[in-house]
Amino acid sequence: MTSYITVSQFGLIDSIAPCSRSAGASSGGGGMSGPADDRLVFNATWHDERAALLRHFVLSYYVDDGTLELFEPKLRRVFLRRSAVDTVAADDLWVGARLNVFGRQVELTDYGTEVTRRLLSQRTQRTLAIVKPDGVANLGHILNAITLHGLKVTQARMVRLTRAEAETFYAEHAARTFFPKLVEYMTSGPVVALELLGRDAVARWRQMMGPTDSEAARRDVPDSIRAQYGTDKTLNAVHGSDGAEAAAREIPFFFPAERDAPRPRGSVELCGSSTCAVVRPHIVRDGLLGQLLAALQAADSDLQITGLELQWLTEARAREFLEPYRGAVAEFPALAAELASGPAVALALRWPCQGADAVEAFRRVVGPRDPAIAALLRPQSLRAKFGRDRVRNALHCTDLADDGPLECRFFFGGEES
Ligand SMILES: Nc1ncnc2c1ncn2[C@@H]1O[C@H](COP(=O)(O)OP(=O)(O)OP(=O)(O)O)[C@@H](O)[C@H]1O
């Protein structure tokens, strides 16, 4: 779990006082202590599936001891008394974040105080990154570099841009001589769109990318992403928003707030050699997603990722996905709870050279279900390297050959080309 921040780390004040709430938020926060406490306050919602109700809360995070309180303004009552919640740390708090509060997915919808807004808006800046078609083969390494630089991946989707989408996205370059080549390149294969979050994310990601021209990058900034994974001026592995305004425009292009709004289509191509994998939330939480994907991509150059999406399943969806294991696997309830405990990364994989045996071949890459047994029998397998126990065993992979496309559809339903 990420480390706690302290008020002194904010370098600000020694008291965080509540102030006027933004529209829609209730004032007060029953059960909260006086105005001199150190807390971060948010408006939050929780979709109560049993009551089929979206419930609204004021969430207070007490910086001094990392405890959390939920107040329900509508009913004027404390819903969760100030408690230690070991699945939530200060670094997990930003508008748009979803938290696991004792198994409930609580979403932070707005800042609850101006002080919270001032403290967090700079340290939770967002930017759009794109891993371009020539960068996708090194997706794992690029994601690992992002994590090592302290940026969080808060949304991720692999998409296949149409010509019209690429032209719209790069419209500012329409008059440039390189434009047709740029559009051809961006539509030549799947790309992975990422929303990155962190302090000065826009500038930091651009610094990590390096100069536009990959040759110049190799000469001047050899440890930059473009130096390592780019080819030339056009084929340069990654994109980054060039400012906060551009980020605010570009993020919704790939990740619109409205569920049904138009967005580039997913890239999934299903066939007989398709299989599905789900990187479990504990890997994402521990910042190991990049390392695991790098190991997966290194397993065989013919193994292709054709679909990828960061998704946080509700417990009901997690149980639905794992239904075939109910009664057959003793850990079923724990597996479902883990799968719903935070964002997971669904992958659609294609392994053409393995044909109909792709599912079985990929299971060998993943290794036995129990990481302790995997360490003995298949020490190079993903579960031997990244698994912790029979529940937190790094990733799910399709069991039966016929189920590959079926499981892919569960996550990427209807998106395949
Ligand atoms: N002179 C050029 N010749 C060929 N392609 C170019 C040239 N300049 C830019 N490009 C391509 O167009 C993209 C957009 O150009 P821009 O000037 O915005 O570069 P950038 O800001 O470094 O990259 P990006 O916008 O992709 O993050 C570049 O990333 C590159 O793929």
UniProtKB/TrEMBL annotation:
Binding site for ATP: K132, F178, R206, T212, R226, N236
GO biological process, one term: CTP biosynthetic process
Record localization: Cytoplasm, Cytoskeleton, Cilium axoneme
Chief location of this protein within or outside the cell: cytoplasm
Pfam families found in the cross-reference section: DM10_dom (PF06565), NDK (PF00334)
PROSITE patterns per record: DM10, NDPK_LIKE
InterPro entries found in the cross-reference section: DM10_dom, NDK-like_dom, NDK-like_dom_sf, Nucleoside_diP_kinase
Domain named DM10: residues: 36-124
A GO MF label: nucleoside diphosphate kinase activity
Cytoplasm among keywords: yes
Gene3D superfamilies hit by this protein: 2.30.29.170, Nucleoside diphosphate kinase-like domain
Keywords: Cell projection, Cytoplasm, Cytoskeleton, Hydrolase, Kinase, Transferase
SMART domains from the UniProt entry: DM10 (SM00676), NDK (SM00562)
Active site, renumbered: H239 (pros-phosphohistidine intermediate), H396 (pros-phosphohistidine intermediate)
The keyword Metal-binding is assigned to this record: no
One GO CC term on file: centrosome
Family, per entry: Belongs to the NDK family.
Protein name, entry field: Nucleoside diphosphate kinase 7
Protein source organism: Amphibalanus amphitrite
